Amino acid sequence: MPNSAPQTSEKSLSEHDLVAAVKEAQKQAYAPYSNFPVGAVIRTAGGQIYSGCNVENASYPEGTCAEAGAIANMVMHGGRDIAEIYVIGNGDGLVSPCGGCRQRIREFSNPNTTIHICGPEGVRKVITISELLPYSFGPEHLVPKQAG
Questions:
Q1: What pTM was computed for the model?
Q2: 19-49 as b/e, with b when 16 or more CB fall inside 10 Å?
C-alpha cells in the first residue's frame, strides 16, 4: 500500500482498498499530545496514490495535518490534480478536513473532487469539495488580466 513514494496506475483500487490504505496512513501518525491520529490518501485523476499522516510537535501550532502531508507528497512527486481524497480519524463524529486543509485540497481540485470522510468502520460520508468549501477562492481568481 502507499507510503512515501507514489503507487502508479492504481485506478483499479476499490473503495475497500483505499479505506485500508488510509487506515495504514493513520497508523503512521505521530500524535503523542492529542492522541488523535489522522490519515489521508489521495488518488489523482491519473490514478496515482499518495498518503500522509498528522505529525504533531511539542510546539502545537507547528504540527501538520494528514491532508497537508498527502498533498505535499503528491506535489513532490509531480502530482497536481486530486480526484479524490480519503481522510480518517477516530471518534463518533465526522472527522472532516480543517479549514486550512479544505483550502489546500481546493488548490488541487475541481468542483467534483470527492472527499471520503472515514471512521474506523469505513466511509461515513462522501462530499464534493464544492459542498465542503462553497464559494471558495482558488487559483482561477488570480489569473492575470490580459492587456487590452
A1: 0.89
A2: bbbbbbbbebbebeeeeebbbbbbbbeeebb
